[in-house]
């Protein structure tokens, strides 16, 4: 994950005051709350980011719908280094936890690379 101090322009100080102690240190590189304009309609994407306990984590939400692929990809590029792989997890039903109906999460373990299938199993790469 990128140092969160590099994303100060998006930091949501008001929201951070209300989640301090839960989602990281107020104003720190360890976590925080952010508001990023959607690349689709410029409306705010609410983001909580943290990087402790062996995991990088970013939650992304909107008030009335889940973020779409373009929005989630935009957030991934902002919060993670270019060489890093991040993932969404679809856990068993018994392990499902939902605090917000329109929130998606990106995860990256800090101590290992996320295994990925070979590119040919995903599809043909564009020859642009």
Number of domains as seen in the coordinates: 1
Biggest sheet architecture: 4 strands, antiparallel
Q: Name the CATH architecture.
A: 3-Layer(aba) Sandwich
For the largest sheet, list the strands in their spatial order: 1-2-3-4
Helix run count = 3
How much of the residues is beta strand, in percent? Answer: 15-25%
Low-confidence stretches: none
Written description of the protein model:
The protein is of the alpha+beta class. It has a single domain (4-122), classed as 3-Layer(aba) Sandwich (Streptococcus thermophilus LMG 18311 protein like). Helices cover 17% and strands 22% of the residues. The protein is built from three helices and four strands; from the N terminus they run H-E-E-E-H-E-H. It has helices spanning 13-19, 69-79, 119-122; strands at 31-37, 44-50, 55-61, 103-109. It has a four-stranded antiparallel β-sheet with strand order 1-2-3-4, with helices on both faces. The radius of gyration is 15 Å and the shape is globular. The two termini are 29 Å apart. The relative contact order is 0.17. The mean pLDDT is 90.
């Amino acid at each position: 994950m990128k140092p969160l101090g590099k994303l100060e322009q998006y930091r949501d100080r008001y929201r951070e005051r209300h989640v301090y102690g839960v989602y990281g240190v107020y104003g720190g590189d360890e976590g925080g709350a952010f508001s990023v304009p959607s690349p689709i309609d410029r409306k705010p994407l609410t983001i909580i980011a943290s990087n402790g306990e062996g995991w990088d984590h970013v939650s992304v939400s909107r008030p009335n719908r889940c973020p779409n692929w373009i929005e989630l990809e935009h957030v991934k590029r902002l919060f993670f280094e270019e060489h890093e792989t991040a993932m969404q997890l679809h856990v068993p039903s018994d392990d499902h936890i939902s605090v917000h109906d329109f929130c998606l999460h990106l995860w990256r373990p800090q101590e290992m690379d996320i295994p990925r299938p070979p590119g040919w199993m995903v599809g043909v790469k564009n020859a642009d």
